[in-house]
Backbone:
């Protein structure tokens, strides 16, 4: 991870949080109850609120015995998980419950805690606050063997409608079942494209296994990942926040739910992913993003893990030549074989405009953004699209620039971005100069 790509506290505030987040958006993010109202109005799933407490009269007038077996008591303006009590089940005695820390708590304890919240014990600046009781979301089965008692959550950083970085936070015994890194929870970096965990951090140190076990923390697949990304981007559209962190929990039956929004999300997510936020944010800052789906597609195209990182160490590295016959995939899933040139001098793959149009992959919904190119005729804009093809039997999903290659020997150039994990050996099985590639207008099988 390059130091120049890391986002620091001052840069976060001056370059992204302050200029892109409105006062209205910050007010929404500071209050969990305001966040709840905005999300409910936009029909974005979020845990239900059973009761709000604004005054001491609300505390004494409420029928505490009407509470369900599990719930969470929270301050509306609390920070870092402070002041939250999570109740998991009823105790045998009437009027008592058991928390996720396996502590017995009664109505009297809950009343005192809510009174502390109202007096501002957990709010920034100790200002009077509002307390509320919210629906409890239990652990999803996918995380049960990795999480200690509490509920894991997924933090996604969204900027300009693009999900740029994600992290899975797993409660530990040290964190008391809470998914807060500063209290001792685990932070797992997540591949934006697949929703699979890649690296893990514990108390600011990189680790491979869950503490005290031999369970690997990389390779965990987060269910309903596409839906999670879309929900995160939708939160930006309704919150008046251009740069934010979205905390999502996965309900075992109801699916993804938004827990809260952050106008200045923490920066440890960079360590969990071993990647800098600053460079990623700058890459999407000036892009024109049409809608939620477009933003998700851009995030997956730009910030997915490279193929080389997923190649097994014991697998033989494939050798390829400078000229390779590849199989392109059309918009309907049909395939066509063409000649491609492997160009280690180019970073990104480039495909002929006419061929892309015939494959149906030059449609508006598949265009990620327009890239400015300086040519002898001046500055021109060329589309950048999603592209799928097979190289030496390996399926590659990438992004490609559109260009005019009608007079070139090969309609597609494969850049070095797509050949990590391959060994390019000039001369091996190279096609002779008189070799004629398949017609570009060949029938798509």
Residues:
């Amino acid at each position: 991870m390059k130091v120049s790509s890391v986002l620091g506290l001052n840069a976060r505030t001056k370059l992204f949080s302050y200029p892109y987040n409105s006062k209205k958006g910050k007010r929404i993010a500071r209050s969990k109850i305001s966040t709840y109202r905005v999300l409910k109005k936009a029909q974005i799933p979020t845990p239900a609120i059973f009761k709000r407490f604004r005054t001491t009269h609300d505390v004494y007038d409420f029928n505490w015995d009407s509470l369900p077996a599990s719930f969470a008591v929270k301050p509306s303006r609390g920070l870092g998980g402070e002041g939250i009590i999570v109740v998991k089940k009823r105790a045998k005695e009437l009027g008592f419950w058991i928390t996720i820390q396996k502590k017995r708590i009664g109505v009297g304890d809950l009343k005192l805690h809510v009174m502390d919240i109202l007096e501002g014990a957990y709010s920034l600046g100790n200002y009077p606050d509002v307390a509320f009781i919210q629906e409890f979301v239990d652990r999803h089965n996918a995380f049960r063997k990795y999480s200690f008692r509490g509920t894991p959550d997924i933090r996604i950083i969204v900027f300009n409608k693009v999900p740029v970085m994600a992290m899975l936070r797993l409660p530990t015994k040290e964190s008391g079942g809470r998914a807060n890194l500063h209290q001792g929870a685990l932070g797992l970096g997540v591949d934006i494209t697949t929703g699979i965990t890649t690296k893990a951090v514990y108390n600011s140190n990189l680790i491979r296994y869950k503490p005290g076990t031999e369970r690997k923390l990389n390779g965990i697949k987060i269910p309903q990942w596409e839906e999670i990304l879309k929900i995160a981007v939708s939160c930006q559209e309704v919150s008046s926040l251009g740069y934010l962190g979205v905390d999502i929990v996965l309900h075992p039956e109801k699916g993804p739910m938004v827990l809260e929004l952050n106008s200045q999300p923490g920066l440890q997510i960079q360590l969990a992913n071993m990647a800098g936020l600053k460079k990623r944010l700058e890459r999407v800052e000036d892009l024109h993003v049409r809608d939620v789906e477009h933003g998700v597609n851009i995030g997956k195209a730009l910030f997915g893990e490279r193929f080389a990182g997923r190649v097994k160490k014991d697998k033989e590295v494939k050798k390829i030549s400078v000229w390779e016959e590849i199989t392109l995939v059309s918009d309907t899933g049909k395939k066509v074989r063409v000649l491609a040139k492997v160009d280690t001098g180019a970073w990104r793959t480039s495909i002929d405009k006419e061929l892309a149009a015939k494959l149906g992959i030059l449609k508006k919904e598949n265009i990620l953004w327009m890239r400015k190119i300086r040519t002898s005729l001046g500055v021109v804009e060329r589309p950048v699209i999603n592209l799928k093809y097979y190289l030496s039997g390996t399926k590659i999903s990438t992004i490609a620039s559109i260009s005019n290659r009608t007079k070139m020997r090969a309609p597609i150039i494969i850049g070095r971005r797509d050949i990590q994990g391959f060994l390019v050996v000039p001369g091996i099985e190279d096609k002779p100069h008189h070799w004629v590639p398949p017609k570009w207008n060949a029938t798509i099988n």
